[in-house]
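Fill in residues.
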């Protein structure tokens, strides 16, 4: 059944207090749940209380202390009829965590027990009104075998512990902060902690623990530093202070997502906790810092203020992503972080917005909420709030968020509550802006600059494309930062912010004797596509001189994208193609030679637009042609700039390892140089990559070299892959890299390699990180996935069908790649659709996969 936003009704009962008693076992865990319930005066009265379940069986029910048979099942849910105003319900359930391969609810991972309850996992533990607007305080007693489960963790504060005669022990936890069931967590197992402390702005001493497996402790330092920085930053930037005396993080190796913000007990994928220079790349270090911050920030944007219903998911996720992005900007290079975030948006969210799964950041309906933890809800959601901040400025934005936190603390709120708080607190009219919450699709802005006499006139128009269920769109307010450059002095008079809020508008700028060069959507002030009518020379000018780093990056990207679009379409004569390549190589040489750039930024400028993004810019894409032309361009640039890249590689190789920006930048451009050199001269590239591999004293260099080597045949490839595996076998996160590098490789036989790797003894469908490292890396490797004979599509469909009964949430995440069928050239399109139909016709599909496949077929 489809759940609709407009059907929201408050729950007829409140559940002020929950007490849970867990008798823990890997194969059998018994749960006694005691709920204090009372009629909700804010809801329509009903004598029936619906307690959600998912695959649970009732062991027993008691009401007000009396065993009761007065219950019925409605599907998976338990229904009770309660005569009075307030009652106590006691329910006993028993579950088998070791059989829980979905990894939702209580499950066993690597000999320990842990939970994932967002969004609807709590109902797999016990019957409960499993919805985010039912807030309760929790008291939890955990009993378990002292050897199997020496550490017993839950939300809130540890109140007491004890031992029983039979070798079991127990711990009792109490969380004073009312919370919805999706924030419940428990962990039991053999764990060791990195312990530290943090003193909050008002002097609260908080104990910090990061729990990991014995042996992983020395890889937790970066996570701990990131946590302390996050706590300080949230105080300084948003005035948010931590509210318990204890903050625990646990790393688990089987996890569907990145991490989870359970109150006082964040559970993390090991990938976002463990890092050291030998096993983690610079990108991995950033991932740890960003996700630690994200989950910590949820304590206010998510936990203290939660969501009324799951349609409001972006209320906590969009805002928290923005908060973690701003944090990472402050911790490192702000422009580089901005470019990375835009790249993620364009690579993951734009395709969502232009395909069959398009939905507004606040969706209107769903069948399975897990399918809406999307780049749209998260990343576009963050962009929407960032636009508000851009329009009112940092200071007024802070007044808005202060009002929001103040007004809604302790509540389950809506996106509308957030917008209203920003509107009032910041003094910003957001009437029309609300369309960003209700309309899907990426607006396309057409830009034309006209010059006459002393006046430059900017003509803008917007088109918000039709999306499923939304054929007609209203104009959106689009905040655009812009600057007009004088060609001679290469400077401008200052940045301006204009807001395009109608379908068409013109803006005039006086005092330009010569036609200026327009820099627009600076800093990516709006998440839109800009179609600008601009001369190639002007893009070259901006790529060299724009003082907004994002706009500079963008000019170079535009230059390359427009060239590749033409060459993919076969629109270019040989001479035209050669002159465009020469212009691009010259622009890149200017980047290589610009001493004012730091290497981190230089590295961004050297990233070629991805094949996925290129496909996104075309109405109908031919991935085979895109791959060929992009590789040919890389080879041409590599050959033309061979000496420059060799010199860069040499200079960067001399910088010793550290986590300082200079050294990180050096590592970034080093592998970039290698990629260009290998494309231009495979012989040389192979030799240099092997040398980089052998000389590497850190994972960034080693992985970069191996990435280049996996793309080319030869003994170096074989030797490096063997060496890497032997060096790191037993380290799951690094073995994941080994799988992912091969599955994401440029090698022409990648499909065969992936099929062989699926038979490798280290491969398992039960571990999501491993599944992602092999099959997600493959599905998002355009040249392999889009193999002309359709073998890539068949393989991904096989994966979906095999994984669906084991882990439907992860299986469903593969569907969007096949869902791109409408935007592909006819042959591939038909083959992709055929695979979707094959999946659709399989018996007993999960709700997750069924929803994604049926929406994808449209
Ligand atoms: N709230 C978590 C985060 O973004 C993600 C949890 C997702 N869970 C799920 N079942 N889809 O921080
Ligand atoms: Zn989140």
């Amino acid at each position: 059944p489809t759940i609709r936003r407009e059907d929201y009704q408050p729950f007829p009962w409140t559940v002020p207090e929950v007490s849970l008693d867990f008798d823990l076992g890997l194969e059998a865990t018994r749960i006694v749940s005691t709920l204090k319930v009372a009629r909700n005066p804010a809801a329509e009265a009903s004598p029936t209380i619906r307690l959600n379940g998912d695959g649970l069986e009732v062991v027993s029910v008691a009401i007000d202390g009396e065993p009761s048979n007065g219950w019925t099942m409605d599907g998976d849910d338990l229904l009770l009829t309660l005569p009075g105003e307030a009652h106590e319900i006691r329910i006993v359930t028993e579950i088998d965590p070791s059989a829980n391969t979905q990894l939702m609810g209580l499950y066993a991972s690597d000999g320990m027990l842990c939970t994932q309850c967002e969004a609807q996992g709590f109902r797999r533990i016990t019957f409960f009104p499993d919805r985010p607007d039912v807030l309760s305080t929790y008291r939890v007693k955990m009993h378990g075998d002292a050897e199997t489960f020496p550490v017993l963790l839950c939300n809130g504060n540890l109140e007491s512990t004890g031992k029983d005669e039979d070798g079991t022990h127990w711990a009792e936890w109490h969380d004073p902060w009312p919370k919805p069931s999706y924030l419940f967590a428990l962990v039991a197992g053999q764990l060791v902690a990195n312990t530290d402390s943090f003193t909050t702005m008002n002097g609260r001493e908080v104990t910090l623990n990061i729990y990991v497996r014995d042996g992983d402790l020395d890889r937790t330092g970066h996570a701990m530093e990131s946590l302390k920085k996050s706590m300080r930053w949230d105080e300084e930037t948003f005035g948010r202070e931590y509210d318990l005396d204890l903050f625990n993080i646990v790393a688990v190796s089987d996890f569907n997502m990145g991490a989870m913000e359970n109150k006082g007990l964040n559970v993390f994928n090991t990938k976002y906790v463990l890092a050291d220079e030998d096993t983690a790349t610079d990108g991995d270090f950033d991932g740890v810092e960003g996700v630690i911050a994200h989950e910590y920030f949820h304590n206010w944007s998510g936990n203290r203020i939660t969501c009324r219903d799951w349609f409001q998911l972006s209320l906590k996720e969009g805002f928290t992503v923005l908060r973690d992005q701003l944090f990472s900007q402050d911790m490192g290079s702000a422009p580089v972080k901005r470019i990375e975030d835009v790249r993620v948006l364009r690579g993951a969210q734009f395709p969502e917005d232009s395909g069959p799964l398009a939905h507004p950041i606040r969706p209107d309906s769903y069948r399975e909420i897990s399918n809406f933890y999307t780049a749209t809800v998260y990343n576009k959601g963050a962009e929407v709030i960032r636009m508000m901040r851009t329009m009112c400025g940092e200071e007024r934005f802070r007044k808005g968020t202060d009002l929001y936190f103040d007004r809604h603390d302790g509540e389950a709120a809506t996106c509308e509550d957030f917008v209203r708080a920003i509107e009032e607190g910041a003094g910003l009219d957001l009437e029309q802006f609300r369309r960003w919450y209700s309309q899907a699709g990426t607006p396309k802005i057409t830009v034309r600059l006209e010059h006459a006499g002393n006046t430059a006139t900017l003509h803008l128009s917007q088109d918000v494309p039709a999306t499923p269920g939304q054929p007609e769109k209203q104009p959106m307010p689009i905040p655009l930062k812009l600057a007009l450059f004088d060609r001679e002095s290469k400077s401008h008079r200052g940045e301006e912010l204009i807001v395009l809020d109608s379908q068409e508008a013109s803006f005039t700028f006086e005092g330009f004797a010569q036609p200026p060069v327009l820099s627009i959507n600076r800093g990516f002030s709006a998440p839109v596509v800009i179609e600008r009518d601009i001369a190639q020379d002007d893009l070259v000018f901006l790529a060299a001189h724009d003082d907004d780093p994002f706009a500079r990056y963008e000019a170079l990207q535009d230059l390359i994208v427009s060239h590749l679009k033409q060459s993919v379409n076969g629109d270019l004569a040989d001479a035209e193609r050669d002159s465009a390549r020469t212009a691009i190589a010259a622009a890149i040489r200017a980047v290589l030679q610009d001493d004012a750039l730091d290497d981190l930024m230089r590295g961004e400028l050297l990233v070629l637009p991805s094949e996925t993004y290129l496909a996104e810019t075309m109405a109908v894409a031919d991935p085979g042609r895109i791959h060929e032309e992009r590789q040919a361009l890389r080879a041409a640039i590599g050959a033309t700039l061979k000496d420059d890249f060799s010199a860069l590689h040499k200079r960067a190789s001399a910088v010793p390892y550290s986590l300082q920006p200079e050294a990180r930048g050096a590592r970034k451009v080093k592998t970039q140089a290698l990629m260009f050199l290998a494309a231009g001269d495979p012989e040389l590239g192979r030799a240099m990559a092997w040398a980089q591999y052998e000389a590497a004293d850190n994972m960034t260099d080693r992985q970069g070299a191996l990435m280049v080597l996996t793309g080319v045949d030869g003994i170096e490839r074989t030797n490096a892959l063997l060496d890497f595996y032997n060096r790191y076998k037993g380290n799951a996160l690094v073995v994941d890299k080994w799988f992912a590098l091969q599955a994401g490789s440029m090698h022409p036989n990648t499909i065969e390699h992936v099929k062989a790797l699926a038979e490798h003894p280290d491969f398992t469908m039960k571990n999501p990180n491993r599944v992602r490292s092999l099959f997600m890396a493959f599905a998002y490797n355009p040249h392999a996935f889009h193999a002309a004979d359709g073998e890539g599509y068949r393989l991904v469909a096989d994966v979906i069908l095999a994984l669906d009964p084991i882990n439907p949430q992860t299986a469903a995440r593969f569907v969007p790649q096949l869902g791109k069928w409408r935007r592909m050239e006819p042959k591939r399109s038909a083959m992709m659709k055929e695979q979707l139909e094959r999946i659709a016709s399989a018996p007993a599909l999960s709700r997750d996969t069924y929803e994604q496949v049926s929406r994808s077929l449209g």
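Residues 294, 298, 317, 320 surround zinc ion (ligand 2) (CB under 6 Å).
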